[in-house]
Amino acid sequence: MGPLEIVLLAILGGVAFSIGLWLLVTGLLRMMARMSKRLNADTGMLLRESPWGSGSVNGVRARGCLRVAEYERGWIVRISKIFGDGKLWLPKSGASISQPQDGGFFSPKYRTMVCGEDRVRLFGSLADFVAESPSVEAR
Questions:
Q1: Is the CATH number 1.10.3470 carried by domain 46-131?
Q2: Domains of the chain: which residue ranges?
Q3: Neighbours of 98 (CB within 10 A)
Q4: Could you state, in chain order, the average pLDDT of each consecutive group of 10 residues for the chain (139 residues)?
Q5: What contacts 80, CB < 8 A, 6 or more positions away?
Q6: Of the chain's two ends, which shows fewer C-beta atoms within 10 Å, N or C?
Q7: 72/42 Cα distance (integer angstroms)
Q8: What pTM value is reported for the model?
């Protein structure tokens, strides 16, 4: 085996290791956020979907890679596919949305969605998106 083959194997091994590490980390973060790849929920019809934005799901922060979809019976909070493609179902029957909160000096305003043990904090445009739902009374 010549030096060129050794260098190519080292590069290929480094790429394979990096991909494996990325999959491990995104899976771990998805698990910490209590998100899953598949949902077994009766969502009803899709009403609207937000643009990508920032927030935190059960303490796991996501910048610019969260999207909220409103369905007849609840919301799906989804993280981008590149970051693990996690989804969290929040039924409207058990969810509450806070009044807008000031995020402080460097943070935008936010709203918190709470459903059972799940807590989703949505910043900026995502907070506005959820507040625009006619089916939710802000508390």
A1: no
A2: 46-131
A3: 16
A4: 88 94 92 91 91 95 94 94 92 89 80 94 92 65
A5: 52, 65, 66, 67
A6: N
A7: 9
A8: 0.84
